[in-house]
């Protein structure tokens, strides 16, 4: 299994609290021109809408997603304010495919210590 590069470790420590949050970010990053509702992300990831909503709102607050709202819903799109995120996110997608256990272990070992 490949080691997790320091740039990815730094990004994970700074922005990601759970595997589900990472998967939501990666989903939106795959199609960064598409606007996503919480329901659609929940359906794609087979997760709880309320948990997905909290994850997306936190990622938006961190400057990784942008939002648009109307009277009925908020939609989200991958659009990081930091260019480094655009470089690291594809690396995280690759690591998740190639070294999922190691990446998940890093996320949860870090969050258990904080």
Structure description:
It contains five helices and three strands; from the N terminus they run H-H-E-H-H-E-E-H. Helices cover 65% and strands 11% of the residues. A hairpin with a 4-residue loop joins strand 2 and strand 3. It has a single domain, classed as Arc Repressor Mutant, subunit A (Orthogonal Bundle). Strands 1-3-2 form a three-stranded antiparallel beta sheet. The longest helix has 31 residues. With 114 residues, the chain is mostly helical. Helix 2 crosses helix 4 and helix 3 crosses helix 4.
Note the topology.
Elements: H1 6-15, H2 19-30, E1 36-37, H3 38-45, H4 49-61, E2 65-69, E3 74-78, H5 83-113
Antiparallel strand pairs: 1-3, 2-3
Helix pairs in contact: 1-5, 2-4, 2-5, 3-4
Short structural description:
The protein is mainly α and 114 residues long.
Per the CATH scheme, the topology name is: Arc Repressor Mutant, subunit A
Would you list the SSEs in sequence order as H and E? HHEHHEEH
> Class in CATH?
Mainly Alpha
Trace the largest sheet across and list its strands.
Answer: 1-3-2
Which regions have little confidence, pLDDT < 50, spanning 5+ residues?
A: none
Let me know the CATH homologous superfamily.
Winged helix-like DNA-binding domain superfamily/Winged helix DNA-binding domain
Q: What is the domain total for the residues?
A: 1
Q: Do you know the CATH architecture?
A: Orthogonal Bundle
The end-to-end distance, rounded to whole angstroms, is 26 Å
Biggest sheet features: 3 strands, antiparallel
| Average pLDDT rating | 92
Number of helices: 5
Portion in strands: 5-15%
Structural class: mainly alpha
Q: Helix fraction?
A: 55-70%
Number of strands: 3
Shape: globular
Roughly how many Å is the radius of gyration?
Answer: 14 Å
């Amino acid at each position: 299994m490949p080691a997790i590069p320091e740039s990815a470790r730094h990004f994970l420590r700074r922005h990601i609290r759970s595997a589900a949050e990472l998967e939501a970010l990666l989903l939106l990053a795959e199609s960064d021109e598409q606007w996503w509702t919480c329901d659609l992300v929940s359906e794609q990831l087979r997760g709880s809408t309320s948990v997905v909503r909290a994850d997306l709102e936190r990622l938006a607050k961190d400057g990784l997603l942008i939002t648009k709202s109307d009277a009925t819903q908020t939609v989200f799109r991958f659009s990081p304010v930091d260019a480094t995120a655009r470089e690291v996110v594809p690396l995280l997608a690759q690591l998740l495919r190639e070294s999922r256990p190691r990446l998940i272990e890093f996320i949860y070992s870090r969050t258990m210590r904080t």
